[in-house]
Amino acid sequence: MSFEHIAVIGAGAWGTALASVIARAGRNVLLLTRDRTSADALAERRESLRLPGLHLDERIGVSALNEDVGRYDAILLAVPAQLLRDAARAIAPQLRRDTPVIACAKGIERHTHKFMTEVIAEIVPAALPAILSGPSFAEEVARGLPAAVTLATRDESAAAALARALGSAAFRPYHSTDVRGVEIGGAAKNVLAIAAGIVAGRGLGASAAAALVTRGFAELFRFGNALGARPETLVGLSGLGDLILTCSSAQSRNYSFGLALGKGRPPSTTTLGEKLAEGVFTAPVLLELAEANHVDMPITRAVVAILAGRMSVDEATEALLTRPFRAES
Which residue is catalytic, options 106, 114, 189, 263? Predict the structure, then answer.
């Protein structure tokens, strides 16, 4: 399989970073927005608004979304999880059969409880759904700093070929066929990163932070196991790796959101400007899926209660700390 022409839908920070990665890999890449005015401005300016100081590689084309997207060998959907359905619908009429459509968002659709590749399969049934996830910050990837991620699709040969097409010395995609495992890691870690930010913002200490991440990973693992994810995926880049990154740095939008909550700002007034904390939308859906599959996720439950205003940060912390003692599992 040859993926020489690749399109990226979404010119935000992550989409721009991925377009830069693809250009460095020597592929032909087109960065697309759904707004003509934004596309024209970006094409003229050649500098990302989301990543100030980042100038687009000369090999990156810029355009508004149009029917030409159908001639590309693979499509990356670099849009927020709750907007992925609309993006998939916009490209559906143009795509050739078996074109890989790669979700680059980490979340679960709120109203349907569907993972990103399920949304793609529903809206673009002729496509080959895939997911790209792992420990990576857009700004670092855009600057060419080393990063490793996981790319998964049900077709192993396609996954391997896509990984080779996107990979370079500074960007290393590992391939997998465990699509659900990769999606679970990316979605759950966002919720747990909010919890980690709360711990830091509340000043509960490094010991509490380590306990939170460890027990949070236990939740992630139980949930993944219940939904058929492979253990090696959950302890890999898209699971444990991404959890470690997003629970330890203010570069993480979800961690920063939790940090503000921990410092006393109520959920209704805690914003990150134009930056989106995916975990805010994922948390209640993740908990509903967990309860439907009889998976105990107390940290996730606490985050949901805080976001819904049913518990304060201190009340949620006390509830977690006063749970009955039990064997570690």
Answer: 189
